[in-house]
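Private note to self, pasted from the team thread so I don't lose it. Backbone tokens:
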């Protein structure tokens, strides 16, 4: 699984995911770093077949292509 963590997601989540074998990247390490637009993030996610982890509900409106059968959202609680 490939994951992109948005700008408001802590780097420690990227580290946590990588330690568990997930191909995780933070948006600040790619594209325009913290200046990257939601549309560019969505294009990247679509082009790389990644999962976007974000706190920004507007990203969905920003152009990310979601399968029509997606009906659930998931929350990960801190241990």
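Design output:
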């Amino acid at each position: 699984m490939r994951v992109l963590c948005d700008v408001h997601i802590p780097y420690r989540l990227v580290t946590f995911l990588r330690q568990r074998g997930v191909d995780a990247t933070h948006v600040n390490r790619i594209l325009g770093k913290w200046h990257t637009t939601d549309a560019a993030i969505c294009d990247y996610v679509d082009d790389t077949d990644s999962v976007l982890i974000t706190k920004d509900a507007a990203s969905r409106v920003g152009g990310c292509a979601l399968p029509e059968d997606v009906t659930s959202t998931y929350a990960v609680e801190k241990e």
